[in-house]
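The following record pairs a protein chain with its ligand, fe (ii) ion.
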Amino acid sequence: MPFKFIHLTDTHLAGPGLKLYGLDPRARLDAAIADINKHHSDAAFAVVTGDLTHWGDAAAYADFAAAMAPLRIPHVAMVGNHDRRVACLDGLKAAPRDANGFVQGTRTTDHGLFVFLDTLDETSDAGEMCAKRLGWLEETLAKAPTDVPFVFFMHHPPFPVGVHAMDEIALKQSAEFADVIAPYRSRIRHLFFGHVHRPISGSYGKIPFSTLRGTNHQVWFELDANAPHLASHEPPAYGVALIDQENLVVHSHDFLDTSLRFPFSPPEGMDDRDYALNFPAR
Ligand SMILES: [Fe+2]
């Protein structure tokens, strides 16, 4: 049985009862949690990679805590550019905290050390990893036994993804970050991030990465730097990761999808081709 965990991102709770861009972020998070409870309560834990709230208000963190309370598995709450560190740490027991007060931490699993990073700069939408945070990361990686692999989680991608407006607000210290992880690259099995509100996967150097849609609004797919940067009502998703000694597989699930589900096989006595061509079967 592979080890299973859940990736959620960019929940953007605005505050109790408040809609955001015409959508209800709390209702959507509730729907995601209900779906995870129903289908994935065997997962080890869930990670929410930041932008938990839209404006960083205490009331929105209380709303987030209330939404996550029914989740049957533990979760880790991280910060993104829309969050506020003190309000997050005050409001959420699930937010890790390092010795310098950053929302960073680790979780030991049978498949390596999971590392949660704080890339929040409260004065900018771009990501930041200051010397203190990079120092914590360096120390954390250095003290792990050499046979232990790592799985990384952060809000901002440390490299451009090609969506120009999002690349302008990626991690500022991408070079410094790359330097710190350089000696450990072969041990980093995967990098999960948020921020981009789009399903994207690939590799960062030789490190596989994935990100996915948020649970509220999305960012429209646009690679033309001169085209307008638009948000969208594309469907929300959460990720389900399966990891064993060999492989790490990430599924993206559109949990609000209500489109038709049907068997591939025809009803008994019906020809396969007839079923497919004259669907639905009479
Ligand atoms: Fe976001």
